[in-house]
Amino acid sequence: GGGGGGGGVPSAAAPAAVADLAAQEPENDVDRFEWYRGRAEQGDADAQYNLGTCYDEGRGVEKNDEQAFLWFSRAAEQGDADAQFSLGVCFHEGKGVEKDDAKAIELWTKAANQNNEDAQFILGWKDAGANEGET
């Protein structure tokens, strides 16, 4: 497979102009992917997570487990709970990385501690649909 590199604008181009362009999230998957990528490369954790999801699901770009893992990792390192959960799934399923359940549980625990419901559910901290939890 190998994809060609996109002809990107040099990053020295005024960030203010980029911010104006990127004020509104595009509707189209391909445009949205490019939009996330621009923000992700500037270190936006939310965009990094969304970019990982694009690669994970093949939305606006060819599906790529390694790239999904890479971007989930970057966002998770910044403390993004959704990314920590998704990165845990990568480790659990061996997607884009060697399978490692201990690492998956460690990441899910971090996400669950930030009230990520998917992580809390997968760890058995809460039943589906149950709101009352013991602390």
From TrEMBL:
Superkingdom of origin: Eukaryota
SMART domains, per database record: SEL1 (SM00671)
Entry protein name: Sel1 repeat family protein
What lineage does the source organism belong to?
Eukaryota, Cryptophyceae, Pyrenomonadales, Geminigeraceae, Hanusia
